[in-house]
Amino acid sequence: MKTGYYVTLPEDAELFIPLIRLRFLNLLFRRSLTSSSNRRREDSWLKSLFVRKVDPRKDAHSNLLAKKETSSLYKLQFHNVKPECLEAYNKICQEVLPKIHEDKSYPCALVGTWNTWYGEQDQAVHLWRYEGGYPALTEVMNKLRENQEFVEFRKARNNMLLSRRNQLLLEFSFWNEPVPRSGPNIYELRSYQLRPGTMIEWGNYWARAIRFRQDGSEAVGGFFSQIGQLYMVHHLWAYKDLQSREDIRNAAWHKHGWEELVYYTVPLIQEMESRIMIPLKTSPLQ
């Protein structure tokens, strides 16, 4: 007597059997072509998508990744401007912001100021550096409250905005220091939202990856967030034009090792965004 388990299939089930058999054979064929080393690499990549072990740390990642020789703090501002007000907004920014940048009594410097060209439209982006970290930030904020010209500037500016947000950032130790440069250039701000617990891993990979992108001095600065949206990374690049950007990025793929670093950093990312930005006339980064 035969025993076993039986299931009742729908009447049209036989239509799907050849397709299932074909897919199964195709899977076996593809796996047979994969070497053992590639299988281990694939398994590791897949595992990284679903399993994220956060190693125990004895120090904050900011202390492990940031520059030790400096204590600079950066502030990145995003202002979404009413479309009809963008020209007036740029005008008052170019009148007031350089005065703060040039005043030696303020321990801060305007690193760059831009309008987004491709990406979110009618947007202004400002990057400030505070020499001396959080105490310098507090000192600047207190002084600006007493600066009547700046108070009036903020009132006028705020009437032109739809929304605004900012982040406080530290600088990766292995990136270039962002210094003034002559133009004309376009700038790309690539922003990455990382999976929580992966900042150290990101830093370890990019400490090696950055050497593939420094031949043409396009690397301007690399930062990670401390306050605001957390586990955010920002890479700032400068190019002569969009075609130069395309050529430089394509050339990186011909350098041995670049593709592997990209391969292992992709699973660390939750979201990413690219902005192409044009500097204002008064921006130190031209």
CATH class: Alpha Beta
Number of E strands: 8
Q: With helices defined by DSSP (H or I, 4 residues minimum), what is the helix count?
A: 9
- Secondary-structure class: alpha+beta
Major sheet: size, sense and barrel closure?
A: 8 strands, antiparallel, barrel
Q: Assign an overall shape.
A: globular
- What is the straight-line distance between the termini? 86 Å
Low-confidence stretches: 1-10, 32-37, 42-59
CATH fold category name: Alpha-Beta Plaits
Number of separate domains? 1
What sequence of helices (H) and strands (E) makes up the elements? HHHEHEEHHEEHEEHHE
Q: Identify the CATH architecture.
A: 2-Layer Sandwich
Arithmetic mean pLDDT:
84
Strand content: 25-35%
Rg calculated over all Cα atoms: 25 Å
- What percentage of residues falls in helices of 4 or more residues? 25-40%
The strands making up the biggest β-sheet line up spatially as 1-3-2-8-5-7-6-4
Model description:
This is Nipsnap homolog 2. GO terms for molecular function: protein-macromolecule adaptor activity. Belongs to the NipSnap family. Pfam families: NIPSNAP (PF07978). Keywords: Autophagy, Mitochondrion, Transit peptide. The structure is a single chain. This protein is an alpha+beta fold and 286 residues long. It has one domain: Alpha-Beta Plaits (2-Layer Sandwich). Helices cover 37% and strands 27% of the residues. It is built from nine helices and eight strands. The chain has helices at residues 17-32, 36-50, 61-65, 86-102, 134-145, 148-158, 199-209, 242-252, 258-265, and strands at 73-81, 108-118, 123-130, 161-171, 186-194, 219-227, 232-239, 269-279. Strands 1-3-2-8-5-7-6-4 form an eight-stranded antiparallel β-barrel. The longest helix is centred in the first third of the chain and has 17 residues, at 86-102. The chain is globular, with a radius of gyration of 25 Å. The N and C termini lie far apart (86 Å). Residues 1-10, 32-37 and 42-59 have low confidence and may be disordered.
